[in-house]
Q: What sequence folds into this?
């Protein structure tokens, strides 16, 4: 039997839920990887992918709630998840720190996501593989 080495992955999601298959495909991959014994080092949301971290997304009850499903998976497996600060601010995704900094009336980030800079993504260089899930446009 071949020796299958375990991998660590960073997943970069750039496609938005409900307008792209990227979040769904990434979650399917992440579940399969964890089931196979691999490790997801972190999930990094960039561009329109940051919509996955919004606490205000409310899909119809007969559709999968991708942000909630992602949140549950991340919490269950204790995987850090970061939304790019520049992408987040451009698209109205705000955490309590940015709310205070910009004197905004509210914040809307979903737990366990955090807003951080590209330095978080650079740290992903310590994993075995970085896999991108994008909108395909």
A:
């Amino acid at each position: 039997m071949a020796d299958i080495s375990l991998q660590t992955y960073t997943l970069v999601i750039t496609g938005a839920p409900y307008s792209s298959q990227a979040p769904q495909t990434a979650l399917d991959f992440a579940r399969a990887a964890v089931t196979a014994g691999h490790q997801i080092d972190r999930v990094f949301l960039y561009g329109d992918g940051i919509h996955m971290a919004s606490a205000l997304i409310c899909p119809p009850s007969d559709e999968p709630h991708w942000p909630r499903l992602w949140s549950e998976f991340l919490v269950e497996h204790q995987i850090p998840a970061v939304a790019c600060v520049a992408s987040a601010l451009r698209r109205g995704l705000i955490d309590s720190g940015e709310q205070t900094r910009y004197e905004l009336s509210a914040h809307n980030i979903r737990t366990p996501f955090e807003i951080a800079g590209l330095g978080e993504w650079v740290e992903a260089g310590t994993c075995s593989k970085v896999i991108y899930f994008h909108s395909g446009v």
